[in-house]
Protein 1
Amino acid sequence: GIREALTKAGIDPAVFEVEPAEAAAPVEKTEETLDYDVVVVDAGGAGLTAAVRATQEGAKVLVVEKMPLVGGNSLRAEGGMNAADTKVQAELGITDSTVENFVADTLRLGHDLANPDLVQTLAENSAEAVDWLDSIGAPLTKVAATGGTEHKYLHKPEDGRPVGAYLVEKLSGGQR
């Protein structure tokens, strides 16, 4: 069907034909036992965070990733990380970015479709998440209002880099 459509469009389908790739040489499998306390299957933002936290708790951790680089969808995150009542906000004199206001803004901007209990949990734990990132050398020190919020919740890297790539770099120890 595709060949016919290309032909009808006046395009030579041969332009798109490629020689089949040679099959890779078989890899010799060996049996090996590895000893880890925790195996994290995912090197995106969530997996890297889990690996770092487990390591902080003293676990020997192995991270497994199918892609040729770490970061997953987190590499695409551009804006920042919303949080309420953070130390950074306090240092900047921002006093109205409270958990209550964060919840209200989030529900309003989501057209009241979000689960209020989950939004409350997010808001209540957001400052701790920003503090933890700071403790591992990933401070988010620029704070702004964005996306229709009435208060300044958005935490970003000081140098203005996209937050996702910045955090992946910090969480992975620069290993990409």
Note: The mean pLDDT is 92.
Protein 2
Amino acid sequence: MQLMPAIKHPPVIDISHWIDVPDFNALEPKPWLVITKATQGTWLLDAKYGEYAEEIPAAGIRLGAYHFMEPGDEIAQADWFCEIILQVGLLGNEILGCDMEVPGISLAEIKSFLDRVQLRTGIRPIIYSSQLMLEALYPNKICPEWLKSETLWIAEYPSSPD
């Protein structure tokens, strides 16, 4: 019988309206961060964001909020994301994220999005994407200097998620 490795650090959980969490206090082990979808494009507000944005910090868990980028006006998307998260309220210790999972978005657009969100909130968002998606944006294999100083959350998708 193979034992699962011990969790040395509290986990990070990524959720959206697709995942119902009835009680964040009941999560074991208690995560140090729950990052929840807030917006997508310039039109979608995640149905659970307002509820989760209250419940997560109330359970003593750090709140994260992310925007699912779509091809198109990155400044309008950043403004939509900021409008929603600022309306719900920020404590100042949130992790904000730019979820980049679809083709058709350039590195320049991602940088503009990050800059705009930071200007409006004072928080620099992280970039959430897969390594292959990011590397495809610089096919000459030379990572842009600005990207080297960004915080990246590299997605790893299990072959058989449970």
Note: The longest strand covers residues 33-40.
Protein 3
Amino acid sequence: LLYSGEKPAVAGVRLLPIDSLNSYMTLRKVAEAASSSHIALLNDACPLLLGQNAMLRFAQVMEYTGAVMAYSDFLERSGENIKLHPLIAYQLGSVRDDFDFGPLLFFDASAFKSCVTDMDPSVVYSSLYDLRLRLSERFLPFHLNEPLYTVLPKDKVSSEEKQFAYVDPRNRGVQVERERVFTEYLKRVGAYLEP
């Protein structure tokens, strides 16, 4: 279990203190601690309920398709209402750093570890983005067009806040780093054009 801040009181679970899910050090800790064939990451601090056999379904689909990363549709609960939150399929060229994978990501542990080994340790804000781009070079992330979990209510960030976060001067370091990660991706796939 990854945590930042105060150590949670959870029995029978290995606890890994982290600074941020997006840092290289966090992904390295996950890679070093992983002892199973798959890794599940919650990329959003939101409470959720897994559907029956959700993890098994992810593993089965990844084994059948050969995918190294998978994500699924999910349900959203708001009070007594539950609605489907469908996601779109990842395609070649789906490189936005805010692509909606939903909060739960599922990875092939071997591919995860291999990609983390190749990553730049100085990346602080964009390692999860870098990981996704590196994995997509092997096999595009696989979308399960079925809801495998339910997201419970949490505090919402306004859509206007999200849309304009990239121009906030406080996010300048993040933006510069994401551009560097993306530029390196373009070079690796042979799509980089010199200025």
Note: The chain has a mean pLDDT of 88.
Protein 4
Amino acid sequence: MRGLNSSLILLGLLCLALSVYAQVAGLAFSDKLQAKAESGDVDSQFQLGNCYFFGLGVPKKQIDGVAWYRKAAEQGHAEAQFNLGGCLYQGYGVEPNQVEAVRWWRKSAGQNFPPALISLGDSYLHGRGVEKDEKEAVRWFQKAADQEYPPALHRLGNCYLQGTGVDRDVVQAMRYYRRAADLKYQPSIDVLDKLEEGASG
């Protein structure tokens, strides 16, 4: 089951892109959006950050995207806080700083934004930006799982399957994987297929 660990890390790295892409459908730069952002409108600042970060109607310039994410994040925009944390974690448009990334994820998690909750969990699980603490990782995953957030359900399945931060419990692991699979979360569907294939083999 060591492959599950690499899947978990990969999912953590994809969180930023998945969250942002969920927000950019039909979004494109406009002078009106720029003006609203410059006037201090927090949602416009976040959207403008996406425009620059992904090159939506303007030349792609991650450093400007990060700057607008930061403006929105400082005004308390949960997703901007999360995206800023992701940029800091990966070094997209800014010098990488995992400690500062965790600080912004914690602010976003304080608003119960599920991707931030699991990013904090991943940080504790792997000891990146914080001291490694598997039980604390499980606590953050559980907060997101309580919102039926599929990646969090999947992570809890991994934890119970491997005995990471909790007592190993294959039955409980299967429950979490099934809840995520019922929400069409492909990684959990794949794990269930492998586990059931192994059981019947």
Note: The chain is about 70% helix and 0% strand.
